Amino acid sequence: MTEIYSCIPAIPLCISLGAALIIALLGERVRHLNEGVTIAAAGLKFLLITLLYTSVVGGAIWLWTPVTLLPGVPFSLKIDLFGIYFALLSSLLWLVTSVYSIGYMRSLNEHAQTRYYVCFAICVAATVGIAFSGNLLTFFIFYEILTLATYPLVVHSQTKEALAAGRKYLTYLLSGGVVFLFAILLTYTTTGTLDFVNGGILSGSGTTEFLRILFFIFLIGVGVKTAIMPLHGWLPSAMVAPTPVSALLHAVAVVKAGTFGLLRVIFYIFGVDLFMEIGVAPILAVIASFTIITASLMALSQDNLKMRLAYSTISQLSYIVLGAALLAPAALEGGIAHLMHQAFMKITLFFCAGAIFVGTGKKLLSEMHGMAEEMPLTWAAFTIGGLGLIGIPLTAGFITKWYLIGGSLDAGQPVFVIILLTSALLNAAYFLPPIYHAYFSSQEKKETLERRVSWCIKAPIIVCAIIVILLGTIPYAPYFPLESAHEIVRQILRI
Amino acid sequence: MNGMFVHLPILIIMIPFAAAFIGPPIGFLFRGCIRRIVLIALSLNLICSILLALQVLSSGPFDYYLSGVAPPLGIALYADYLGAVISVLISGIALVAVSYSAGIIPELGERRTIFFYVLLLLAIGAMQGIVFTADIFTLFVLFEIQAISLYGLVAMRGDGKGLLAGYKYLLIGSAGSAMILIGIGFLYISTGTLNMHLMAELLPPVSGSYTVLAGLALLIAGLSTKIGLFPLHIWMPEAYAYGPSIFPVISTIALKVGVVAIIRVVYTIFGPSLAIQTIPLESTLALLGAVAIIICSILAIRQMDIRKMFAYSSGANIGCIMLGLGIATVPGIEGAILHMITHATAKAGLFLCADAFLIQAGIRYVHEFKGLSKAMPYTMAAFSIAAISMVGLPLTGGFMSKITIASAAIADGITYYAAILLFWTLLSAVYFYRILKNAYFQEGTLSSTIREAPVRVLIPIFIISIATILLGFFVESPMALIRPAAELLLGGGI
After folding, report:
1. pLDDT confidence of residue B493
2. What does the alpha-carbon distance between residue A188 and residue A209 come to, in Å, rounded to a whole number?
3. CB contact under 8 A, B419 and A175
4. Roughly what angle, to the nearest 10 degrees, separates helices B210-227 and B196-206?
5. Where are the alpha helices (DSSP H) in B156-286?
6. B292 assigned to some structural domain
7. DSSP SS3 for B305
8. Domain containing residue B365
9. What is the pLDDT of residue B245?
């Protein structure tokens, strides 16, 4: 592995921030230009991240530390494989979501579009910053920027309901941030450094008792964004946001930033050995299992489509946590691949929910009976996404679930196999009925609505649905998530 | 040492005083000329402060004897790291505040504008003196000059509320001054000197006596009124609310100067080890600070007048600085000094914006902010940056100082104080959230005649915002002065 010191890691960040600045300066008057800038920046950034990805897969590590923040803690941008993996996900989905956003915002003729695109760009910059952070303090800085920049998107409609949801959102995430910062400072004072080092920095410092407490403070801090139960309350409320926001931020960027952070803390601050030694893994696995099952049960009773998807997200995120907690290579591989696979499936579903809302103005599942005839493309994609999350073979979800089940058997804990299978059943219970009703129930009024949905909305849906299929049919193709996940796990576990 | 640089400490003090004396005659002769004189004086002052800071940075602290007479007979100034860094802060913030302010301040009228600027210059000169003096009686005299100028400034508008606020400030401030004077007297009786260095040398044998203990207690209590440490903060809300424009900014740096005086008493005269023997520092200063943080924040949350709200917020921030000083380790004091800088910068930004809102739109209550982000986008953006720094969120100065103090508290084993500091983030988020939410996300009933502030006003506001952000990132540059300052203070006296 070669370490390259250069300011390259800052460029993808600057592209998004630059886009935000340009859009802010252009203002509301030249709306088409704003959309153009968003697309151009997203495309450019995706290209750059892809190039960096190939170089990192080739064994390079990029590093940039321009200033010192605390003694021994610089502002550090570092691109390793795990980081670029997450950055690739966010930049690819930003590109897709940008196209979708344009269709969505235009169709609904939303207000304050400048603010929307500016905040969106800042959020994506923060996500990439999170991916590239070389130490915990830098990570925290971007983590908080992400919280603040998402708030305007949550309260976008500025209704009473949205403002109440926004307040809940900030209360949860800022409190989580404070707890996280406390854990970071505890780590800093015991070790004098905050760098992400493979194998951890905490080994040999403090008693087992202290390290256990520290781990749970970290878990509460990062757990808010990861939406671990009972810290998940903000996520369903945040569904008042426009659908592209729910799709990219609350199914992918924000929540995955939490999950990514948790994995960073476990494997790069504690280190695998210490993590096993202090014996918190089983507790984490139990918390994750509890979240998986409970969130699925809660999803069953939701009639609002986006709310059902939100609870499904909460449940799916804990798959990743479970994968980490099981500590078997296969489970961890499955978990890390799920980070990517789940993102595509969930974003497909959210895009569909948005398309249905744009086409028909309907939000409730009970109103969607027989709709597949009117919107065949959308419902086909919805079916693919739904089947994927259930874990039907030939979709992305099957692959990761297979690995997770294999991993729990490897770890000698077949009880989690039962949890995973129960969850699959529950997934089926909340995804299959809507799909069934959409196709086979009849509806009085018939009108072909899909034509009203612009191609800017339909194209991203189709692309994402195809990716879900591809991830499920040829998961081992070069540059696909599973390959990287395998390599990341090899590095983390040093095997 | 270069001959010119030797005289910098006295120059820094004398420039504002000299300008204060030549100001009125020229000001009455030529209309609107007074502001220019103040600007020139403060610019010169800033240049001198920066030169002195560079000088101290390169060749270390040095003494300056007035008229060349050495103590114990003469009066000494001592240019150390702490004095240099706070001096730059004073002249910098004052210059920005005055360049923001108008040639003729509308609420005061032409005649009283001249007096306003004269009092302001006197206050600035006195502040510069306080940070450099090594003589405790000179410290008292300068405090009186500063305090009397500030009382005058508060009451300057001449309406009932302003006069009452000034009177309240005068009462509390005078009580404080009396305590300071008696405290100095007690220390003088015990040691026979007024020079801080000599006092520090002569104190250890008598440090157990009740005279010395009473002296220390009186000094701390008296200075606490000057810095508005809870529960002696009660003059602040009204003074901030009813004083003329830019008074709160000047008062913000006056608070910091009071903190410097406390540092001198506790660390220079008594020395950390002696001070810990005579008073348990951690459990006194830190506890007072923690209580101030919690209570002042709650009071700020209950307050709907933004200027009073910011006054309570100042009280909480003073508490934070005291907490840092109470930790009494190098990182703790570093954090406290850094917080003085970041808080002064952010608070100056807040008050300049608040003044702009008042002048342009007549807004001073939280509920009136609805829809203001559309009418005054640039001022509101600067206000948001300052608010984020006050809350202590990343990429602003307030974040850096807060985590420095918090990590110092953890390293010193008083983890619960770190927890209070971090919890304070949420408390201050509550009251700034209300303002920002109203401004950005609620449609208002503002009249359409409200215009963005003029460029002359926006430039100083932006300078403050940029400084706030830079402090959150390039924190190492001020740290170059702050770190040796903290080490020197803990090195057992001067």
Report:
1. 39
2. 17
3. no
4. 140
5. 160-191, 196-206, 210-227, 236-242, 247-263, 272-278, 281
6. yes
7. strand
8. 287-494
9. 83
> Contacts of residue B403 in chain A, CB cutoff 8 Å?
70, 137, 181, 185
Q: How many beta-carbon contacts under 8 Å exist across A and B?
A: 67
Residue B467 lies in a domain: yes
Number of structural domains, chain B?
1
| Degrees to nearest 5, angle at CA A421 with A417 and A427 | 145
Residue of B411, B426, B442 with shortest CB distance to A158:
B442
Q: For A266-284, write each residue's pLDDT tens digit.
A: 999 988 888 888 888 889 9
Chain B residues 411-470 with CB within 8 Å of chain A: 411, 415, 418-419, 422-423, 425-426, 429, 433, 437, 440-443
pLDDT one-digit tens code per residue, A85-94:
899 888 888 8
* Contact assignment for B441 to A155 by CB distance below 8 Å: yes
Structure tokens that stand for A337 in this block = 């691949």
- The structural domain count of chain A equals 1
Which residue, chain included where needed, has tokens 């579009």? A113
Q: Rounded to whole angstroms, how far apart are CA atoms A494 and A54? A: 22
In this complex, the residue of B406, B425, B437 whose CB is nearest that of residue A185 is B406
d(CA B436, CA B432): 6
Residues of A in contact with B338 (CB under 8 A): none
Among A67, A147, A179, A189, the strongest candidate for a mutation testing the B interface, having the largest count of B CBs within 10 A, is A189
Q: Can you tell me which residue has the tokens 């008696």?
A: B182
Higher-confidence residue of A277 and B5: namely A277
B394–A145 C-beta distance less than 8 A: yes
A443 burial level (CB within 10 Å; 0-12, 13-18, 19+): middle
Tens digit of each residue's pLDDT (9 = 90 or more) over B148-198: 999 989 888 888 888 998 999 999 999 999 999 999 999 999 888 888 888
Nearest to B402 by CA among B388, B381, B384: B388
For residue B388, the chain A residue with the least C-alpha distance is: A148
Q: Which of A137, A152, A178 sits opposite B422 (nearest CB)?
A: A178
Q: Is residue B324 one of the residues assigned to a domain?
A: yes
Greater model confidence, A27 or A429: A429
A166 neighbourhood in chain B, CB within 8 Å: 437, 441
**ipTM for the assembly:** 0.90
Question: Residue B484 is encoded by which pair of tokens?
Answer: 């040796």
Range of the domain at A426: 339-495
Query: Which chain B residue is nearest to residue A185, measuring alpha carbons?
Result: B407
Q: Which residues of A touch B422 (CB under 8 A)?
A: 178, 181-182, 185
Residue at A362 is within a domain: yes
Residue B345 inside a domain? The answer is yes
Label residue B2 by pLDDT band (50, 70, 90).
low
User: Which token pair is A26?
Assistant: 């252009």
